[in-house]
Protein backbone atom coordinates (compact mmCIF):
# COMPACT_ATOMS: atom_id res chain seq x y z
CA UNK A 1 0.00 0.00 0.00
CA UNK A 2 1.30 3.42 -0.95
CA UNK A 3 -1.18 6.06 0.28
CA UNK A 4 -4.18 6.37 2.59
CA UNK A 5 -7.09 8.78 3.03
CA UNK A 6 -10.04 8.95 5.45
CA UNK A 7 -13.65 9.20 4.31
CA UNK A 8 -16.19 9.15 7.16
CA UNK A 9 -15.45 6.00 9.19
CA UNK A 10 -13.47 4.37 6.40
CA UNK A 11 -9.79 4.44 5.51
CA UNK A 12 -8.98 3.82 1.85
CA UNK A 13 -5.50 2.85 0.69
CA UNK A 14 -4.01 2.79 -2.80
CA UNK A 15 -2.53 -0.65 -3.42
CA UNK A 16 -0.95 -2.97 -5.97
CA UNK A 17 -2.55 -4.48 -9.09
CA UNK A 18 -5.29 -1.85 -9.20
CA UNK A 19 -6.78 -2.59 -5.78
CA UNK A 20 -8.07 -0.15 -3.18
CA UNK A 21 -8.06 -1.48 0.39
CA UNK A 22 -11.01 -0.25 2.46
CA UNK A 23 -10.80 -0.40 6.27
CA UNK A 24 -13.92 0.07 8.41
CA UNK A 25 -12.98 1.72 11.71
CA UNK A 26 -16.41 0.97 13.20
CA UNK A 27 -16.18 -2.76 12.44
CA UNK A 28 -12.96 -3.67 14.25
CA UNK A 29 -10.83 -2.44 11.36
CA UNK A 30 -12.30 -4.95 8.92
CA UNK A 31 -10.55 -4.65 5.55
CA UNK A 32 -12.10 -5.36 2.16
CA UNK A 33 -10.33 -5.17 -1.20
CA UNK A 34 -12.05 -3.32 -4.02
CA UNK A 35 -10.87 -4.01 -7.57
CA UNK A 36 -10.69 -1.05 -9.91
CA UNK A 37 -10.81 -1.26 -13.74
CA UNK A 38 -6.99 -1.28 -13.98
CA UNK A 39 -4.24 -3.73 -13.03
CA UNK A 40 -1.72 -0.92 -12.60
CA UNK A 41 -0.17 -0.14 -9.23
CA UNK A 42 -2.01 2.73 -7.53
CA UNK A 43 0.26 5.28 -5.88
CA UNK A 44 -1.99 7.98 -4.41
CA UNK A 45 -5.56 8.56 -3.28
CA UNK A 46 -7.34 11.74 -2.23
CA UNK A 47 -10.77 13.07 -1.27
CA UNK A 48 -12.20 16.13 -3.03
CA UNK A 49 -14.47 18.66 -1.34
CA UNK A 50 -17.57 17.10 -2.93
CA UNK A 51 -16.69 13.70 -1.36
CA UNK A 52 -15.49 12.29 -4.67
CA UNK A 53 -12.50 9.96 -4.25
CA UNK A 54 -9.64 10.10 -6.74
CA UNK A 55 -6.75 7.68 -7.26
CA UNK A 56 -3.76 7.72 -9.62
CA UNK A 57 -0.95 5.33 -10.42
CA UNK A 58 1.29 3.63 -12.94
CA UNK A 59 0.45 3.63 -16.65
CA UNK A 60 -0.84 7.19 -16.22
CA UNK A 61 -4.20 6.10 -14.83
CA UNK A 62 -6.73 8.38 -13.09
CA UNK A 63 -9.68 6.76 -11.30
CA UNK A 64 -12.80 8.17 -9.65
CA UNK A 65 -15.31 6.90 -7.08
CA UNK A 66 -18.57 8.63 -6.17
CA UNK A 67 -19.85 5.94 -3.78
CA UNK A 68 -17.30 6.04 -0.94
CA UNK A 69 -14.88 3.75 -2.74
CA UNK A 70 -17.24 0.83 -3.33
CA UNK A 71 -16.76 1.08 -7.10
CA UNK A 72 -14.32 2.91 -9.35
CA UNK A 73 -14.28 4.28 -12.89
CA UNK A 74 -11.21 4.74 -15.06
CA UNK A 75 -11.65 8.31 -16.29
CA UNK A 76 -8.25 8.86 -17.93
CA UNK A 77 -5.13 7.00 -19.02
CA UNK A 78 -2.16 8.86 -20.45
CA UNK A 79 -1.51 7.70 -24.04
CA UNK A 80 2.23 7.40 -23.37
CA UNK A 81 1.83 5.71 -20.00
CA UNK A 82 4.07 7.21 -17.33
CA UNK A 83 3.72 7.12 -13.57
CA UNK A 84 1.52 9.47 -11.55
CA UNK A 85 2.62 9.96 -7.94
CA UNK A 86 -0.03 12.29 -6.50
CA UNK A 87 -3.34 14.01 -7.16
CA UNK A 88 -4.94 17.08 -5.60
CA UNK A 89 -8.29 18.78 -6.18
CA UNK A 90 -8.56 22.52 -5.60
CA UNK A 91 -12.35 22.40 -5.85
CA UNK A 92 -14.97 20.02 -7.23
CA UNK A 93 -14.09 20.77 -10.86
CA UNK A 94 -10.42 21.74 -10.79
CA UNK A 95 -7.75 19.12 -10.11
CA UNK A 96 -4.12 18.35 -10.92
CA UNK A 97 -2.12 15.13 -11.00
CA UNK A 98 1.68 14.93 -11.00
CA UNK A 99 4.30 12.28 -11.56
CA UNK A 100 7.58 11.06 -13.02
CA UNK A 101 9.65 13.21 -15.39
CA UNK A 102 7.54 16.27 -14.74
CA UNK A 103 4.25 14.65 -15.77
CA UNK A 104 1.58 17.25 -14.97
CA UNK A 105 -2.12 16.83 -15.78
CA UNK A 106 -5.01 19.22 -15.19
CA UNK A 107 -8.79 18.91 -15.30
CA UNK A 108 -11.22 21.81 -15.22
CA UNK A 109 -14.40 19.78 -15.63
CA UNK A 110 -14.44 17.41 -12.68
CA UNK A 111 -12.20 14.81 -14.29
CA UNK A 112 -14.09 14.35 -17.56
CA UNK A 113 -11.07 15.55 -19.55
CA UNK A 114 -7.38 15.97 -18.65
CA UNK A 115 -4.72 18.05 -20.38
CA UNK A 116 -0.96 17.68 -20.02
CA UNK A 117 1.08 20.78 -19.15
CA UNK A 118 4.80 21.57 -18.97
CA UNK A 119 6.06 24.09 -16.41
CA UNK A 120 9.56 25.52 -16.72
CA UNK A 121 9.03 27.25 -13.35
CA UNK A 122 9.75 23.87 -11.73
CA UNK A 123 13.31 23.91 -13.08
CA UNK A 124 16.48 25.43 -11.54
CA UNK A 125 17.43 28.92 -12.81
CA UNK A 126 20.29 27.64 -14.97
CA UNK A 127 17.97 25.23 -16.79
CA UNK A 128 15.41 27.97 -17.37
CA UNK A 129 18.09 30.24 -18.81
CA UNK A 130 19.21 27.48 -21.16
CA UNK A 131 15.64 26.85 -22.28
CA UNK A 132 14.92 30.51 -22.92
CA UNK A 133 18.03 30.76 -25.09
CA UNK A 134 16.89 27.66 -26.96
CA UNK A 135 13.38 29.06 -27.35
CA UNK A 136 14.74 32.15 -29.06
CA UNK A 137 16.09 29.84 -31.76
CA UNK A 138 13.33 27.24 -32.04
CA UNK A 139 9.97 26.83 -30.27
CA UNK A 140 9.85 23.17 -31.33
CA UNK A 141 13.27 22.42 -29.82
CA UNK A 142 12.28 24.30 -26.67
CA UNK A 143 9.13 22.23 -26.17
CA UNK A 144 11.00 18.96 -26.80
CA UNK A 145 13.79 19.81 -24.38
CA UNK A 146 11.39 21.07 -21.69
CA UNK A 147 9.50 17.78 -21.76
CA UNK A 148 12.74 15.83 -21.36
CA UNK A 149 14.49 17.63 -18.48
CA UNK A 150 11.69 18.20 -15.96
CA UNK A 151 12.31 16.44 -12.60
CA UNK A 152 10.14 13.84 -10.91
CA UNK A 153 7.24 15.49 -9.06
CA UNK A 154 6.61 13.48 -5.89
CA UNK A 155 3.96 15.27 -3.82
CA UNK A 156 1.55 18.18 -4.24
CA UNK A 157 -0.13 19.84 -1.25
CA UNK A 158 -2.83 22.52 -1.06
CA UNK A 159 -2.24 25.04 1.74
CA UNK A 160 -5.07 27.57 1.87
CA UNK A 161 -4.79 29.35 -1.51
CA UNK A 162 -1.33 28.04 -2.41
CA UNK A 163 -0.07 24.82 -3.97
CA UNK A 164 3.29 23.38 -2.97
CA UNK A 165 5.09 20.67 -4.90
CA UNK A 166 8.25 18.73 -3.99
CA UNK A 167 10.38 16.43 -6.11
CA UNK A 168 13.87 15.36 -7.05
CA UNK A 169 16.94 17.60 -7.24
CA UNK A 170 15.80 19.70 -4.29
CA UNK A 171 12.57 20.78 -5.95
CA UNK A 172 10.36 22.86 -3.66
CA UNK A 173 8.01 25.12 -5.60
CA UNK A 174 4.94 27.22 -4.84
CA UNK A 175 2.03 28.39 -6.97
CA UNK A 176 -0.41 31.16 -6.09
CA UNK A 177 -2.61 30.66 -9.18
CA UNK A 178 -3.75 27.04 -8.80
CA UNK A 179 -0.67 25.61 -10.47
CA UNK A 180 -0.87 27.59 -13.71
CA UNK A 181 2.56 29.05 -12.97
CA UNK A 182 5.25 27.97 -10.50
CA UNK A 183 8.06 29.61 -8.55
CA UNK A 184 10.88 27.28 -7.57
CA UNK A 185 12.10 28.31 -4.12
CA UNK A 186 15.78 28.78 -3.33
CA UNK A 187 16.06 25.85 -0.92
CA UNK A 188 19.26 24.62 0.74
CA UNK A 189 18.84 20.87 0.12
CA UNK A 190 19.45 19.55 -3.40
CA UNK A 191 18.45 15.89 -2.99
CA UNK A 192 15.08 14.25 -3.55
CA UNK A 193 12.15 15.50 -1.47
CA UNK A 194 9.14 13.30 -0.72
CA UNK A 195 6.62 15.27 1.32
CA UNK A 196 5.52 18.79 2.22
CA UNK A 197 3.05 19.33 5.06
CA UNK A 198 1.61 22.52 6.48
CA UNK A 199 1.32 23.62 10.10
CA UNK A 200 -0.11 26.85 11.49
CA UNK A 201 3.27 28.58 11.45
CA UNK A 202 4.92 27.13 8.33
CA UNK A 203 5.69 23.92 6.46
CA UNK A 204 7.65 20.72 7.03
CA UNK A 205 9.63 19.26 4.15
CA UNK A 206 11.16 15.76 4.16
CA UNK A 207 13.47 13.87 1.84
CA UNK A 208 16.25 11.37 1.43
CA UNK A 209 18.68 10.15 4.09
CA UNK A 210 16.92 11.70 7.06
CA UNK A 211 16.73 15.20 5.64
CA UNK A 212 13.97 17.10 7.45
CA UNK A 213 13.40 20.85 7.34
CA UNK A 214 11.05 23.42 8.81
CA UNK A 215 10.31 26.71 7.03
CA UNK A 216 8.48 29.48 8.87
CA UNK A 217 5.53 31.27 7.29
CA UNK A 218 7.45 34.55 7.19
CA UNK A 219 10.11 32.94 5.03
CA UNK A 220 7.49 31.46 2.72
CA UNK A 221 5.80 34.83 2.27
CA UNK A 222 9.13 36.44 1.41
CA UNK A 223 10.07 33.66 -1.02
CA UNK A 224 6.69 33.79 -2.76
CA UNK A 225 7.12 37.49 -3.52
CA UNK A 226 10.82 37.10 -4.38
CA UNK A 227 11.66 33.58 -5.64
CA UNK A 228 15.36 34.46 -5.89
CA UNK A 229 15.53 35.09 -2.14
CA UNK A 230 17.33 32.40 -0.17
CA UNK A 231 15.01 30.61 2.23
CA UNK A 232 16.20 30.42 5.81
CA UNK A 233 15.15 26.88 6.62
CA UNK A 234 15.75 25.01 9.85
CA UNK A 235 17.34 21.58 9.45
CA UNK A 236 16.10 19.11 12.05
CA UNK A 237 18.44 16.49 13.47
CA UNK A 238 17.04 13.10 12.44
CA UNK A 239 18.22 9.92 14.22
CA UNK A 240 18.40 7.61 11.17
CA UNK A 241 19.73 8.20 7.62
CA UNK A 242 16.53 6.87 6.02
CA UNK A 243 14.17 8.30 3.44
CA UNK A 244 11.32 10.13 5.20
CA UNK A 245 8.31 9.33 3.03
CA UNK A 246 5.49 11.06 4.90
CA UNK A 247 4.87 13.68 7.58
CA UNK A 248 1.36 13.04 8.88
CA UNK A 249 -0.07 15.91 10.94
CA UNK A 250 -3.40 16.43 12.69
CA UNK A 251 -4.21 19.32 15.05
CA UNK A 252 -0.56 20.03 15.73
CA UNK A 253 0.47 16.39 16.16
CA UNK A 254 2.94 15.10 13.56
CA UNK A 255 4.22 11.59 12.86
CA UNK A 256 7.18 10.75 10.63
CA UNK A 257 7.48 7.50 8.71
CA UNK A 258 9.88 6.18 6.11
CA UNK A 259 12.12 3.33 5.06
CA UNK A 260 12.48 2.08 8.61
CA UNK A 261 10.73 -0.07 11.20
CA UNK A 262 10.62 2.97 13.47
CA UNK A 263 7.85 5.56 13.75
CA UNK A 264 8.76 9.00 15.11
CA UNK A 265 6.87 12.06 16.27
CA UNK A 266 7.81 15.72 16.33
CA UNK A 267 7.95 17.44 19.70
CA UNK A 268 9.02 21.10 19.52
CA UNK A 269 11.32 20.36 16.57
CA UNK A 270 12.77 17.32 18.35
CA UNK A 271 12.33 13.88 16.78
CA UNK A 272 11.20 11.22 19.28
CA UNK A 273 10.70 7.48 18.75
CA UNK A 274 7.06 6.41 19.15
CA UNK A 275 7.16 2.72 18.26
CA UNK A 276 8.81 0.03 16.12
CA UNK A 277 7.17 -2.51 13.83
CA UNK A 278 8.26 -5.62 11.95
CA UNK A 279 7.55 -3.92 8.62
CA UNK A 280 10.72 -2.78 6.85
CA UNK A 281 9.17 0.46 5.67
CA UNK A 282 6.05 2.63 5.69
CA UNK A 283 4.95 4.87 2.86
CA UNK A 284 1.98 6.81 4.24
CA UNK A 285 0.13 7.42 7.50
CA UNK A 286 -3.00 9.03 8.90
CA UNK A 287 -3.79 10.23 12.43
CA UNK A 288 -7.43 9.55 13.37
CA UNK A 289 -9.07 11.64 16.12
CA UNK A 290 -5.64 12.22 17.69
CA UNK A 291 -6.02 8.77 19.30
CA UNK A 292 -4.77 6.33 16.70
CA UNK A 293 -2.52 6.40 13.68
CA UNK A 294 -2.87 4.03 10.77
CA UNK A 295 0.31 3.32 8.84
CA UNK A 296 0.43 1.73 5.39
CA UNK A 297 3.29 -0.01 3.64
CA UNK A 298 4.49 -3.40 2.51
CA UNK A 299 2.50 -5.24 5.21
CA UNK A 300 -0.80 -3.45 4.68
CA UNK A 301 -2.42 -1.49 7.53
CA UNK A 302 -0.67 -1.14 10.89
CA UNK A 303 -2.48 0.50 13.80
CA UNK A 304 -0.65 2.60 16.36
CA UNK A 305 -2.16 3.93 19.57
CA UNK A 306 -1.18 7.54 19.63
CA UNK A 307 -1.41 10.45 22.02
CA UNK A 308 0.03 13.85 21.22
Automatic annotation (TrEMBL):
Record's protein name: BNR repeat-containing protein
A Pfam family matched in the record: PSII_BNR
A single Gene Ontology CC term: photosystem II
Lineage: Bacteria, Pseudomonadati, Pseudomonadota, Gammaproteobacteria, Alteromonadales
InterPro entries named among the record's database cross-references: PSII_CF48-like_dom, WD40/YVTN_repeat-like_dom_sf
UniProt entry keywords in alphabetical sequence: Photosynthesis, Photosystem II
GO terms (BP aspect): photosynthesis
Photosynthesis system II assembly factor Ycf48/Hcf136-like domain span: 83-198
